[in-house]
Amino acid sequence: MSTQPILVLEDVHKSFGPKQVLKGVNLDVAPGKSLVILGGSGSGKSVMLKNALGLMTPNTGRIIFDGEDVTHDQGKGREAQRARMGMLFQSGALFDSLTVWENVAFRLLNADGVKRRDAKDRAIETLKQVRLGSDVADLTPAEISGGMQKRVGLARAIITKPDLIFFDEPTTGLDPITADAINDLIVEQTKALGAAAVSITHDMASARKIADEIAMLYHGKIIWRGAASEIDNSGNDYVDQFVHGRADGPIQPSL
Hints:
Layout (H helix, E strand, L loop, with lengths): L6 E10 L2 E11 L4 E5 L6 H9 L6 E6 L2 E2 L5 H8 L2 E4 L11 H5 L1 H5 L5 H14 L16 H13 L5 E5 L7 H18 L2 E6 L2 H7 L2 E6 L2 E7 L9 H8 L11
Parallel strand pairs: 3-8, 3-9, 6-7, 7-8
Antiparallel strand pairs: 1-2, 1-4, 4-5, 9-10
Helix pairs in contact: 5-6, 6-7, 7-8
């Protein structure tokens, strides 16, 4: 497996009018590695993710995917890049009007031209990988629990066997037991694929479980990065306050 990063963010800046959100983000992740990015509300996590996905374009800096500068790619170039990525959205982002299997197979049906019968077979097989039986395939998202919806979202993220998977607050809204089960599936499936994983979260239990490395984004910059095992001894006052959830410290609470 290559040790070269599949994704690199190089001095990425992003502003909206006078508001500077990203102020020189430098980040990379290699195949088979899981990087978790911590940060409070308004730290720039979602904007960073959208720049990495190509949903936004940085004002300055570069996005490099598999050795190629894709910062300003559009059309087929950008679509080819996205075809090698998976995404588990915070809210699940399932389509209410589609069945579970149609949600899982959405890309196969709408971008890859796979026949419906074959797409359904692949969807059911992928649902099994996230511990869901074929009996849920023809249900709608409204007919399954929140934890099951997360599993469906994970199945959709991995069905094309992507090289890079993004996880946006993967355990938000779940009880601790269900969240832990989702964390286990994330680790299991990303390792099975050999994919790189980039997750953004404020859930420390999730971060500890799924991360090889953890980075902290604060005021638009990465202020610390290290092995997940080092997070409790980071030597950084901002990281220490965040990890232990203390109101007192250099980070001011958002009220």
